[in-house]
Design goal:
Shape: globular
Oligomer: single chain
Order of helices and strands: HEEHEEHEHHHHHHHHHEEH
Number of strands: 7
Largest sheet: 5 strands, mixed
Helix content: 40-55%
Structural class: alpha/beta
Number of helices: 13
CATH class of the largest domain: Mainly Alpha
Strand content: 5-15%
Radius of gyration: 22 Å
CATH topology of the largest domain: Arc Repressor Mutant, subunit A
Length: about 280
């Protein structure tokens, strides 16, 4: 199994790993495996045994081809990037690994680097990715646009990913296990309340609904003991469509016949972009 660099590395991360802030190349050094501690910014909650074993076998044969990225701690080092390689190296029985030590960036900058590196892995489940995106926004004050730019993603994909965190525990668990897709989950999140989402999840799994069929089911769903159609689910579905189109979080209040739409933006660029879409 080859140790190719993760796809989609942002330009900022790609430049920061091999270079110091003065523009000088940073030479990897051999560091004891036991001196390195896992990163606090790791968003992946699972490391599948089989792929990790394959990487360990590759490391036994060829060594660690891509250096880890670490920062010094009082009694050792903390990983900024490369936890999977570090785990595989331990599994392979290596005593030392090549690592680039970064001590020239501020603490927040290094933590953001670690989060971004982990989010650019291709084997994260959608919930792991969404939680990592939320940390970049809530803990480090990045806007949706800034997160998208750093990760090389579209602004809408960031917003769509974050919407998964609005699902009930059962829906989130089903996404993480692969029982349903992120698309199914976003449709079910349009249902109001845990009970409705859990019911919708059971229907989707039992009937093997596609994402489009799930969206249609959500639009027509009406809880018992209500005489009129539940417009809330339809409003939430409409709000999701508008958010996807505009790339901004919105708030709908009222009914299908009368109400209010609120748009929220966090920069002048976002305001100008949404105005251009509304007037085009």
């Amino acid at each position: 199994m080859t140790q190719a660099r993760p796809r989609g590395l942002g330009r900022g991360l790609e430049a920061l790993i091999p270079m110091s802030k003065e523009g000088e190349a940073l030479v990897p050094q051999m560091i004891a495996v036991d001196q390195i501690k896992p990163s606090r910014q790791q968003v992946r909650s699972r490391f599948d045994a089989e792929p990790l074993g394959e990487l360990a076998e590759s490391i036994r044969l060829h060594g660690v081809l891509q250096p880890l990225l670490v920062r010094p701690l009082g009694d050792g080092y903390e990983l900024i990037a490369g936890e999977r390689r570090w785990r595989a190296a331990r599994l392979a029985g290596l005593r030392t690994v090549p690592a680039v030590v970064r001590g020239d960036a501020g603490s927040d900058g290094q933590l953001v680097l670690g989060l971004i590196e982990n989010l650019q892995r291709t084997d994260l489940d959608p919930l792991e990715e969404a939680r990592g995106l939320r940390r970049l926004i809530e803990e480090f004050g990045l806007t949706h646009d800034e997160v998208a730019q750093r990760l090389g993603k579209h602004r809408v994909s960031v917003t769509q990913s974050l919407r998964l965190l609005g699902g009930c525990a059962a829906v989130q668990s089903a996404v993480a296990s692969g029982a349903i897709t992120a698309g199914h989950a976003r449709a079910l999140i349009a249902l109001e309340g845990q009970q409705a989402q859990e019911h919708g999840l059971k229907v989707v799994i039992a009937k093997h609904l596609s994402v489009r069929q799930t969206e249609n089911w959500v639009r027509t769903y009406s809880p018992r003991r209500r005489r009129r159609t539940d417009s809330t689910a339809e409003l939430r579905a409409i709000a999701a469509d508008v958010e996807s189109s505009l790339g901004l979080p919105i708030k709908l209040s009222g009914s299908l016949n009368r109400g209010k739409i609120e748009l929220r933006y966090s920069s002048r660029e976002e305001l100008e972009r949404v105005c251009a879409k509304l007037t085009s």
